[in-house]
Amino acid sequence: MNIWVDADACPVVIKDILFRAAERTGVQLTLVANQPVRIPPSRHIKFIQVAPGFDVADNEIVKRLEAGDLVITGDIPLAAEVIEKGAHALNPRGELYSMNNIRARLNMRDFMETLRASGVATGGPPALSQGDRKAFADNLDKLLTLYRNKV
């Protein structure tokens, strides 16, 4: 399993959890972004900088990932593509996207986008809470444990 991070919008606290997990487990962690991202020196962690542009990082992740990999993203269309390729998608708030919930998430995203386009102020997501961080770390550990038990 490789872990891919849609790093442009990934919170620093989530990256720190991922850095520790990569060191602890030896799983390859790759951050992909169109802006430079600071990473700690490690043979398990690397960074790929892509050209600026809409969905360039997302497309790079989809191109490189393999079935069974894990992608960290809050981007629902990217998560849908990841699931279609047989990989896992986990958002920074700890929600694991699946075949069972991705369609509903896409529909809600499209609905909210329509509201915003019509001038309705929908506000942004709340700040990442301690509960969100714990949910993320817990689900990450579950996925890494499943991976280790298969190897």
What does this structure look like?
The protein is built from five helices and six strands. It has helices at 12-25, 56-64, 76-84, 102-117, 130-150; strands at residues 2-6, 28-33, 45-49, 70-72, 88-90, 96-97. The chain is globular. The chain has a six-stranded mixed beta sheet, sandwiched between helices. It is α/β, with parallel strands linked by helices and 151 residues long.
Short description, anyone?
Helices cover 46% and strands 16% of the residues. By secondary structure, it is α/β, with parallel strands linked by helices. Helix 1 runs parallel beside helix 5.
Topology diagram in text:
Blueprint: E1 2-6, H1 12-25, E2 28-33, E3 45-49, H2 56-64, E4 70-72, H3 76-84, E5 88-90, E6 96-97, H4 102-117, H5 130-150
Parallel strand pairs: 1-2, 1-4, 2-3, 4-5
Antiparallel strand pairs: 5-6
Question: Overall mean pLDDT score?
Answer: 91
**What is the total tally of β strands?**
6
Overall radius of gyration: 15 Å
Q: Please give the largest β-sheet.
A: 6 strands, mixed
Low-confidence stretches: none
* Percent strand: 15-25%
Terminal Cα separation, in Å? 10 Å
State the strand order across the main sheet.
3-2-1-4-5-6
Structural class: alpha/beta
